[in-house]
Each structure stands twice: as C-alpha cells, then as structure tokens.
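Lab manual, section 2.4: Encoding a predicted structure.

Procedure: take the sequence of the chain (194 residues), apply the prediction step described in section 2.3, and record the output as structure tokens. A sample record is shown.
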Amino acid sequence: MSRPYALIAGANKTGTTSLRYALDMVYAHLDKGRHLGKRLTDIKSSYSHERYDNLLKIARDYNILKDHPWNLGDMYKRISEEFPTCKVFLTERNPDSWYHSIQEYTSRLYFRQPKAGTRSKNTIDYATYVKNRKLKLEKLYGVKSFDDVEEVKQAYIQRNEEIKAYFENNSNFTCIRVPEDMNWIAIQLSLIHI
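Recorded output:
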C-alpha cells in the first residue's frame, strides 16, 4: 500500500479530526509517515501559488491528508488520480449545524489564551479579526459574503454533491454522515471494512 492511505475531503468542522484519530488507529500497523511540522508553510504556499505537482510530491510523505489545502478546490480529484489506491472520505454534517460550528470556532480561535511565555496572537481587535477571518472563509467557499447564511450553506451542500458525483462508482470512496451525537469511537466502528 502506497502513501497517502487516506484523504479526508470533508469541510472543516465536519468531524475531520475525529475521523483522523480513527484512521490513525486503523493504519497503526503501517509506516507512520512524516509530521507536518515546518512543511506546513511550503504546503500552504504551494496551494496558494497553484504548484499542484509540488503538493502531490509532498502528499507522498503522509499517511492521511486532511483539512487545508487537501480539502480545498479540486484537490480530491488530483489526489485520487495521482494515488488511485488512496481511500477518500467525505464527512458530512447538517448544514445549519456546520455553519454554526464555523462561527463558534472563529470566536474560540480569537479568544484562545496563549501559552505562558509566548506572545499573544490577539494583537488586533475582535471586529478586525472576524472581518479578516470571514474574508478568508469567503475565498475558501467561493461566496460573496460569509454573513449570507443561505449562500454559504448552499455552497457547502453543492461541494459535497460534486464530490459524491465524482466518486459515484469508486469503491475507494466513503461518505460518512456525521450526526450531532456521533463520537470518534462510533466513526472508527464504521471504518472496520477497511
């Protein structure tokens, strides 16, 4: 089995971290791969400058790909074409719950307390922070305004439908609908067929 073993194509705040923990256990017997560490800057830069060949080269060093930039744009197509044995997971969540979670997460990020002895990241006021965060989310989800709840939820639904249509007859694809009360152990149990 060649790396990467799995791509988690779901949007952030849809259980991607829980699924990652479950997959870590499923793939525990395999080579651990590399930790992102200092490569994170190179990964983000490669995506923003559309150096997809570099991203695919970097992907070979990791067991599981999740979150930005791996779950953005058409990366799911690029990864599945380059790594045909890679399992692809789409985690879905109720759009209302997902949107609310994104909003809550933005607030928690800003108000997170820095570790002792480190400089606070909160050097800008909250309104400026939220504005910058919303601009980033608007770009990520291709919407005019992240405050337009219906437009954002529709973009989320449309992306999920595009991913499902692309992998319609692919046996390496699994869609996991994450109910609000599903914990990571339940997700792990749903992956026993791997």
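Check your result against the sample. The chain has a mean pLDDT of 82.
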